[in-house]
Write a structure and sequence with these properties.
292 residues, mainly alpha, two-stranded antiparallel sheet, 8 helices, elongated
């Protein structure tokens, strides 16, 4: 039962992560598509809609090697999720078994133990293998366009793990606190060990946050890769009609010029008498003449 549930969850998660990472690379509103897959992905409607609209409309040009890099990060994420589920289940059921034998029966505990250990072994192996391959591949890419796309996905992957871990820690902590307060105030219909299912996810999520902060974001290699990424221009946006070229403004008509050989006539602005071009004062009224 536990193994079947975990298997279906992993398959559903893999499809959701493919939509998320592919939409991220294409600039197609990845969070919205991911939420749609998360909540109603079991109906496959979001997946079908995404396959229809992924190449329609404005989108970011996808660099070469998209399939390979998406595969590495998707499978690595699925391995990480499987590992987290196994560790959480192992911690919660083991502590429940130690505290009270009534919390979980012998058969249920054996099933949970077998499923959790299997998930830890398989998830850990898948995660480590594909994550190391992804890091080696990222460091060996020489072409700037592909490197930028790969590091963008790499960083998205890390921030996604970081964010999901914090969300799990927050929800588990709220569950733990709520049940603890309910027991403290003797609220009816609340099991004394109702906090146990939240303990495993809380511990594992906090460990994931700490390890990713120390061994991913704060490493020298990551900062060097980030500096190279920031120096590469962003990819072009495709799928939109080219803007109409701006029409040049019409040139103003040339100013009219006096015919050659003629002398421009000037008049005093005060009395209207005719004056010569080189006069400074009007010979009739003595008014100073302004140059025109």
């Amino acid at each position: 039962m536990w193994a079947t549930s975990i298997g279906f969850f992993i398959l559903w998660l893999a499809l959701a992560m493919w939509v998320y990472f592919d939409a991220t690379e294409r600039g197609k509103g990845s969070i919205g598509w991911a939420l749609a897959m998360f909540f109603v992905g079991w109906a496959l409607v979001p997946l079908i809609l995404y396959l229809i609209f992924r190449d329609i409309g404005a989108r970011t040009a996808v660099a070469p090697g998209a399939g390979r890099r998406q595969y590495l990060y998707i499978v690595s994420f699925v391995g990480f999720a499987t590992l987290v589920i196994g560790l959480s289940l192992l911690i919660s059921t083991s502590i429940a078994r130690v505290i009270s034998e009534d919390a979980i029966g012998d058969e249920g505990y054996r099933q949970a133990l077998a499923s959790s250990v299997t998930a830890i072994i398989i998830g850990g192996a898948v995660r480590v293998y594909h994550w190391l391959r992804a890091e080696r591949r990222l460091s060996s890419i020489a072409e700037d366009e592909e490197f930028r796309a790969t590091f963008f996905l790499h960083r998205t992957y890390l921030y996604t793990l970081f964010g999901v871990s914090w969300i799990i820690a927050f929800l588990s902590g709220m569950w733990l606190l709520g049940v603890g307060l309910a027991n403290a105030f003797a609220v009816e219909d609340v099991e004394p060990v109702g906090w146990l299912p939240a303990l495993g996810p809380l511990v594992v999520a906090l460990l994931a946050v700490g390890t990713h902060q120390l061994f991913s974001f704060e490493t020298t290699s990551y900062k060097q890769l980030l500096s190279r990424f920031e120096a590469i221009p962003a990819p072009a946006v495709i799928g939109v009609s080219a803007a109409a070229e701006a029409q040049p403004a019409p040139a103003p008509p040339p100013a009219a010029r006096a015919p050659a050989g003629t002398t421009e006539r000037r008049f005093c602005s005060h009395c209207g008498a005719r004056v010569e071009a080189d006069d400074v004062f009007c010979s009739s009224c003595g008014e100073g003449l302004r140059s025109r």
